[in-house]
Amino acid sequence: MKSNGKKIQADPCEYCDGTVELRQLRVPFHFKGSTIYVDNVPVWVCKKCGERYFDAPVFKKLEDIARQRQRIQKMVSFPLADYATAPI
Known about the structure:
- The protein is mainly beta.
- The chain has one helix at residues 56-67, and strands spanning 2-4, 7-9, 20-31, 34-46, 52-53.
- The chain has a single domain (2-68), classed as Ubiquitin-like (UB roll).
- A 3-stranded antiparallel β-sheet has the order 3-4-5, with helices on one face. A two-stranded antiparallel ribbon has the order 1-2.
- The chain is flat and about 40 Å long.
- It starts with a strand and ends in a 21-residue tail after the last helix.
- The mean pLDDT is 89.
């Protein structure tokens, strides 16, 4: 994303050319075969297709968090179904 003075200007979505906006979300982050969820991540989200983009410093911090995943205190569990074997 580009900064022109005080205002941050977002690039258009590279998939659908839609407008992206900065949000704070819980995001899944995949790293070296594991997935962690991180709350309150600043992420650019396309209003049209939902594609997500991370600024480079944010992505770097997510990698650092994932490297230290053994220090994460909060655990979340959720139901998981297998699409291929789920009953109709």
